[in-house]
Design brief:
Number of domains: 2
Number of strands: 11
Number of helices: 13
CATH architecture of the largest domain: 2-Layer Sandwich
CATH class of the largest domain: Alpha Beta
CATH topology of the largest domain: Nucleotidyltransferase, domain 5
Largest sheet: 6 strands, mixed
Radius of gyration: 21 Å
Bound molecules: 5'-O-[(R)-(carboxyoxy)(hydroxy)phosphoryl]adenosine, zinc ion
Length: 378
């Protein structure tokens, strides 16, 4: 079965082709193509995504992105029309002006090609991203019942620009949110803190780069040790790290960064402290994410921990979460998506649509029943 995935929930226009076989107990996935047109440059000068600009760009890019996606798959328009069996599009959550472009484009294609259309939850796309096979090797990833039994139940930490959620996954079809952020998402905290430090958007990769500079050039030097000593008086908080639930809160951390930055600016010291602040911000966010995820993993006695969402591209988070699972008393597997599949992409949307299709074999999936929903929850 060949699935066309379409993603336009925020600032990435992405279309992908995924070849799938099998059922919920025994299936295989092959990535045929995944094209992402990023709008980062456009939004960077505003320090964040501007919804109406994003929508205009999606409208401009969606058709060329489809053409590139088909070309990379060795298909022309007529062959695609014949070979594609199912279309899946993100219908929420996200920015409504952005979602509407993808949803309406998908509806038009579904009508014109007479193919079923599934409206997918963007977050379930992130959940399944750890399953996706590499695009580079064009390998087929196969999952058998026994293997799936060794993976589930699992805890997935979904960390993106808009969400920070802990999800208990009983299996591929049954999952529930057990904790989420009460205010800012982890990615938002990276982005807003980066802005305070004068770094460009998106802030996550920038903070990570600066933190690495501190790690490599200063950490063990007398300057680094002196800076750390000075900063330890104003150590950044780890909000809700010891709370009894699985919720998160990052707005307090952002405010603490704001006060620290204002103080350093007054003393004209901000540029001296930029790398160490980035190092500390990253440590604070990662500490909270790991402690709470591992607490959930122990409580629910899961077999695996997974990462997903844009923030799961963070090297420190991936490394420390891996270490935490390896150091735990029980054996816990660790999964993280390939870097290209951490941020928004249409391949994950196609995979989420596949599982929705397997879970609802009798549904007809008509284009006219699909609508965009900015606040869709898992
Ligand atoms: O999943 P995503 O592409 O979009 C949403 O659905 O929100 O996530 C984007 C977020 C941004 O906040 C960005 O700063 C963050 O992911 N991010 C990172 C890294 N790469 C992207 N955060 C920390 N470290 C990174 N390396
Ligand atoms: Zn996302």
């Amino acid at each position: 079965m060949l699935i066309l995935g379409i993603e336009t929930s925020c600032d990435d226009t992405s279309l992908a082709l995924l070849e799938v076989k099998g059922d919920l107990k025994n299936f295989s996935l092959k990535a045929i193509s995944n094209v992402v047109s990023s709008q980062i440059k456009l939004h960077a000068k505003y320090g964040g995504v501007v919804p109406n600009l994003a929508s205009r760009e999606h409208l401009k890019n969606i058709r060329p992105v489809l053409e590139t996606c088909l070309k990379e798959s060795g298909l022309n328009f007529n062959q695609a029309k014949k070979k594609i069996d199912l279309i899946c599009v993100t219908r929420g959550p996200g920015l409504i002006p952005s979602l509407l472009i993808g949803v309406n484009f998908a509806k038009a294609l579904s009508y014109a090609w007479q193919k079923p259309l599934i409206g997918v939850n963007h977050l379930s796309g992130h959940l399944y991203s750890f399953l996706l096979p590499s695009l580079k090797t064009k390998n087929i990833k196969k999952f058998k019942e026994k293997q799936l039994k060794d993976i589930f139940p699992a805890i997935c930490l979904l960390v993106s620009g808009g969400h920070t959620q802990l999800i208990y996954m009983k299996n591929l079809s049954q999952y529930k949110i057990i904790g989420e952020t009460r205010d800012d998402a982890a990615g938002e905290c990276f982005d807003k803190s980066a802005r305070l430090l004068g770094l460009k958007y998106p802030g996550g990769p920038e903070i990570s780069k600066q933190a690495e500079i501190f790690n490599e050039q200063f950490l063990k030097t007398p300057t680094g040790i002196a800076l750390l000593k000075k900063l330890s008086k104003a150590k950044l908080p780890r909000p809700m790290i010891n709370s009894t639930n699985y919720d998160f809160s990052f707005s307090g951390l952002k405010t603490a960064v704001l006060y620290l930055v204002q103080d350093l600016e007054k003393q004209n010291l901000l540029s001296d402290y930029k790398t160490i602040l980035a190092y500390e911000i990253q440590n604070a966010i990662v500490d909270v994410l790991i402690k709470k995820t591992m607490k959930a993993a122990e409580f629910y006695k899961v077999k695996s921990v997974m990462l997903s969402g844009g923030v799961s591209a963070n090297k420190l988070l991936r490394q420390e979460m891996f270490n935490a699972t390896q150091n735990s008393k029980r054996k816990i597997n660790f999964f993280a998506p390939e870097l290209a599949f951490t941020t928004d992409n249409a391949l994950m949307v196609a995979s989420a649509g596949f599982f929705e299709y397997l879970n609802n074999p009798k549904q007809s999936f008509n284009w006219f029943s699909i609508s965009a929903d900015a606040n869709l929850s898992l």
